[in-house]
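Schema walk-through. Below, the input block comes first and the output block second. Nothing else is stored per chain. Lengths vary across the set, and this one has 447 residues.
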Amino acid sequence: MRRIGQNPLLYTLLGCTLFALFGCRSVQRQSLGFQSTESESTSETGFGDISPANTESVWPARWGAESIQAGDRTGIIVPIDHSISELAPAHLSRFHRLRTGETEYTDMDLLAVAMGIEEPYKFQAEGPGCYLFVHQPPIDGEDPKPSKDGEPELFIKYISAQHSTKVNTSDEPQLELERTWFTYRTPRSGQDSIGTILLMPGMFGTPEPVIDGVERYFRAKGWSVLRMLSHPSRFTQRKQFGVPPGSEAFIAQRIAEMFDTRTAEAAYAASSAMRYVHKKYPDDAEKPVVLLGMSGGAMILPTVYSFDPSLYSGGVLIAGGGNFLEINIRSNYAKWIDAIDLDADPSEPEIQKPEKEQLQELSNLYMTMSKLDSLHTAESMRGVPVLMLHASSDKAVPASTGDALFEAIGKPERWVYPVGHELIFAGLPLQTTKIESWVREQVLGED
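--- output ---
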């Protein structure tokens, strides 16, 4: 374990400067095709071929792939035929649902054909709390503002669907559509690729300016970059769980199933996208693929790896952690993400936060019931090159959950910074050269 940068003031000054330069991103909702809905609560064309490591039932089913086995297809990869500049991010509030349009019907039709499904079905597009990307063509014939990095060589989305957990009184399947968007760029200056970085961001694709810089640096050094633009669209879908006394085990089981299926979707999407890239660029199929996750991307990284370990050669985890329920309970980002509410007394009109003891019991039970939390899948990464960057004062992904993940992986190389979550990313541009050098040394075997 290395401790780096013992002067927090340096990072504070750097962080203030960087955040002043980058600013914040605003998402306009009213023009993106949303419709209002009541807040949902729960008390309750190319294909991607998959090669999961675990052929048991730990991997949640998808429409057309009810039992995930090695080699099964869980969804499809579809090329996107418009400019990336026309892509607009959208975080649906707890009161909005995406209006189902031509794109959604087309996506479901392509998925049904690919999965060999002919019977009728009903489906819903993404709803409250989801994060996705929508096509916004230029207005009045205006040319879209070009991307600073130009158009990617591949602009694709992974599409899947799963059966709704709501009560279904119809004979037709009730399905939930889900999408994950990716870009793929080859090395800059036309040089041959030495391998691929599969870059997984923090929640809602953040911190975007920092990720942009990391992507450009690795491309300049000869790497191709497959970038997940954000977690799968339903990863932050809003759920509310009533937790009256005595229901802890039942609710913990439901929460475990929810987190497992959301994390599995990220693993399915990443594997499908990477294998699609290898079909398009067969010369790169034998070259190493390194997972690089930031914040929420680092949280899911061990599970992404464990689904298809033969595909990946190592991983870099920046400000990640394990025990997703504990992170959601303790994170100072919980209200911003607004994905989960726990209500100790559903009979009251206002949400009643559970007491500390009940939250701890839920967290402990969740860990015994979860199959795909990173603390469980981390063991699959032992023996492969792993680097962790850890913020010892992290409150967004609480530092103790990062320590737990460090232990679960088997105490890999770790660089510890005496800062919080925001400042480890503010200072990341100064560490990218070291990270790339570490990847070359550990994965490529270069001195």
